Predict the structure.
Amino acid sequence: MDITLLEIGLLLVTGFLAGIINTLAGGGSNLTLPALMVMGIPAEVANATNRIGVAIQGLTAVVGFRKHNKLDTSDTGPILVPTIIGGLLGAAAAAYAPSGWIKPLLLGTMLAMAFIILVKPSIVAPEPGTLSRKVMETPSSWWGLGLAGFYGGFVQAGVGFVLLTALAGTLRYDLVRANALKMLCTLVFTVVALGLFIAEDLVMWGPGLILAFGTMFGASLAVKMAIKAKPETLKWFLFIMTLCGCIAATLSD
């Protein structure tokens, strides 16, 4: 596939913005998926190709959060197991499900997240000083993480909101640490999903790698922003991005 300079610029800019949005909240794929599709890439191929950028931004963010001691690794195994299983099942479903299922699933998820943040923000933004819990102490977190993994494997857009709800809502991590763990979970199940998409020959490497270059720089900047931001600022940024996700899902073809 031949890529014009204008398309390269579009992918770099949208990738950079998506890297920031996904690291601080979620929903960055609402920018990158249309950017890929406007190039004439079919929806299912764009959905698969987008995972290259998501994986690279996830790796960048995880390294950044770990460098600033904001990545809690004491419970990552139990957190990742249901997420990986869910991601594998979701990716398998996405490879064979009709593309028409993506929009209603995305819109329904965004509306539910916006409602939760508005009505009961403490679910995704625990009060300062709240002690986090272990997965083994909170059986409900297995279901939450498994569903988040399935959603992320099926349609990447908006998965950050679902993961934040599982990590902050059931395990009570503050937003910065929840974001760090969210990016680790996203990285892991995205690699699993990407492997399946590659096996199905649904990935276009040229556009995907250009997009990934932009997401890498966006994620690096976002980590620094997350470390310095006030919890209240992160909460409202999350809410605004959720509303943007609702609008994007409504307007998408």
Summary: The CA atoms of residues 80 and 185 lie 6 Å apart. The radius of gyration is 17 Å. The chain is about 75% helix and 0% strand.
